[in-house]
Design a protein that fits this description.
The protein has 607 residues and is mainly α. The chain has 35 helices and no strands. The N terminus is likely disordered.
Length: 607
């Protein structure tokens, strides 16, 4: 029982020496305190020997506190016989310590019936240990309703075990009276309620009240409360205070806090101190910290040390250890061992390991072996696996099945999957749904999606009205913004389109910049348009260079332009060669013009 609790609560008397009125100092006079205690004990002993029942009770309590059970028992029994309820409670404590639980319960019952809240608490705990929950609840409720903090907490614990919602009420009562475990558990209950109300979304911030109780429990030295408080603050971006609470918790022996502190330090660029805390946490059995150490050593090229820590993580029950071992082996080309570790993690339910295993099997040509693992990973929530299943079905021409998996991945935020859904919807003519998915993909950073979204918006754009002199020639539209976003990400067709838009508004320099960028990246249309721009500016020799590049890449109009250039220069044979090339490249309008030019050049050459 709680012998070392608060004197007034446990022994139910104020008849103890009051604290000295002198201020505490850094070096208290321990000798003086011991002398005071001895003097008080002597005073109580003399009073007890004179028949003072209160003195017998207090003296028995003092001896019990000191561990002198033999000395305490006689005084407590004497006081109990005289009707002192505090003595009856403490006699129960003494007998419980000696292993006489049933006799202890008898004295607690006497004290509890006489109104002792501490005895009712002790009796309630006794009945709970015996499995008699109705009796336990009765006595714990008696204790709690009399204002006994431990009774309120024990009652809450019993009710919570049953799933009774009244547990929160008693946790609150105990927490408000300073019980740190009650404050922590109340915070956890409020936290869970908020997550449940959010449909199981763990990303929702903790309620303000939960944070308040975490803070109170942490301030009283509760290490898990300090851990949770640190996590709340970190999520909110208050990293400095989060680090302080993680440090407090970690110093008190909380391995998860040491691990979290390590990640905080790593993100701040202090990998050396991060490794110190990860090491401390890993040595205390934290698998996440062991994985972090493994990753740190893997980045440094220390693969043997990395493997050792990944194995330690796996031994600690963290399945990520096996997955990371698979990744490590795959990077080293140890395919057979990678497959073994991926399987180990996948069979344990690691969805990303299942996806990685499927990719490994697919690359080895085992499509039938890969598909079930992709399915298992996707059904477990792996977004990448759902996307990969889409690719797998699309490769077989199973467009409906592919679209179903793409939609699942897109709904979870997969950018490329959203692009594929958008393109499929465009093919089906559902422009509204296509735009929605293309916007998601473009917003996620897909240059192709930004370009395709721009083309959709461009097709809707009304023609530019005629402008009077002095009016602005161009108003920037949304489609241009998307073209430019795709262009700045290196999308060649978008670069050409941005160049065309710039040329249309008379910005030759901007147009040339985008055409050149596209051409240098391999765009034949970019090279052709750049040639046109240069030719208009009077730089036909340079234009011919870009048209040559475009024609060599299969651009028919560029070949026709080159044929005309050489014909004007009098280089008829070279002109005829490029005209032949234009005829073969097309399109039809180019072919017809190129045939006429070729025939004319042939006649000229044969004349």
């Amino acid at each position: 029982m709680d012998v070392m609790g608060d004197k007034a609560t446990l022994f139910e008397t104020g008849r103890f020496v009051q604290p000295s009125s002198r201020e505490d100092t850094d070096t208290p006079d321990e000798t003086g305190e011991i002398a005071d205690e001895a003097a008080e004990e002597l005073r109580q002993r003399l009073a007890a020997e004179a028949g003072d029942v209160e003195a017998m009770s207090v003296l028995g309590a003092m001896l019990l506190r000191r561990g002198d059970l033999d000395g305490a028992e006689s005084h407590l029994r004497a006081a109990t016989a005289a009707g002192d309820r505090a003595a009856a409670n403490n006699l129960g404590v003494l007998l419980h310590q000696r292993g006489y639980a049933d006799e202890a319960a008898g004295w607690w019952r006497i004290a509890a019936v006489a109104g002792s809240a501490a005895a009712a608490h002790a009796l309630g705990r006794h009945h709970r240990e015996r499995g008699d929950e109705p009796a336990a609840e009765y006595w714990l409720r008696q204790s709690a309703e009399q204002g006994h903090t431990l009774g309120a907490y024990a009652l809450a614990d019993l009710l919570e075990h049953r799933g009774d919602t009244a547990a929160e009420q008693w946790l609150r009562v105990a927490a408000e009276r300073g019980h740190r475990e009650a404050a922590y558990r109340l915070a956890r209950a409020l936290d869970r309620n908020a997550t449940r109300e959010a449909g199981g979304d763990n990303s929702v911030p903790a309620p303000a009240e939960a944070e308040q109780w975490y803070r109170q429990a942490a301030a009283r030295g509760h290490r898990r409360a300090a851990l949770h408080l640190g996590a709340i603050l970190e999520k909110r971006g208050e990293l400095k205070e989060a680090g302080r609470w993680y440090l407090t918790s970690a110093k008190d022996g909380e391995a998860r806090a040491a691990c979290a502190l390590g990640f905080l330090l790593r993100d701040a660029g202090d990998t050396e101190n991060a490794a110190v805390w990860w090491l401390r946490a890993a040595q205390d059995g934290d698998g996440n910290a062991a994985n972090a150490l493994g990753a740190l050593h893997a980045e440094r090229g220390e693969t043997q040390t990395a493997e050792r820590w990944y194995r330690a993580a796996m031994d600690a029950g963290d399945v990520n250890g096996a997955y990371n071992l698979g990744l490590l082996c795959a990077e080293q080309g140890r395919t057979q061992q990678a497959e073994q570790w991926y399987r180990h993690a996948a069979y344990a339910g690691h969805r990303e390991a299942a996806n990685a295993l499927a990719i490994l099997l697919l690359r080895g040509g085992d499509e039938s072996g890969a598909e079930p693992w992709f399915s298992k990973a996707a059904e477990a929530g792996s977004v990448d696996a759902a996307f990969n299943l889409g690719i797998l079905h699309a490769g077989r021409g199973e467009e409906r099945a592919a679209l179903r998996w793409y939609e699942q991945a897109a709904a979870a935020g997969h950018t490329e999957a959203a692009l594929q859904v958008g393109m499929a919807r465009l093919r089906d003519g559902d422009e509204q749904e296509a735009e929605r998915h293309l916007r998601c993909a473009a917003g996620g950073g897909s240059a192709e999606a930004a370009y395709r979204l721009a083309t959709v918006l461009d097709a809707r754009r009304p023609p530019e009205p005629a402008h009077e002199l002095g009016e602005p020639v161009h108003r920037r539209s949304e489609c241009e913004e998307w073209y430019e976003r795709a262009a700045t990400q290196g999308h060649r067709r978008a670069q050409v389109r941005v160049g065309m838009l710039a040329a249309a508004r008379g910005d030759v320099v901007e147009a040339a910049r985008w055409y050149r960028e596209a051409a240098e990246a391999g765009s034949r249309n970019g090279a052709f348009n750049l040639g046109l721009l240069l030719a208009r500016e009077g730089s036909e020799p340079e234009a011919a260079v870009w048209w040559t590049r475009a024609a060599d890449a299969g651009h028919g109009r560029a070949a026709l332009r080159l044929a005309l250039v050489y014909a004007r220069r009098g280089e008829l044979a070279e002109g005829q060669r490029w005209a032949d090339r234009a005829v073969s490249l097309g399109p039809v309008s180019v072919t017809e013009r190129a045939e006429r030019l070729r025939d004319a050049l042939r006649q000229e050459l044969s004349a």
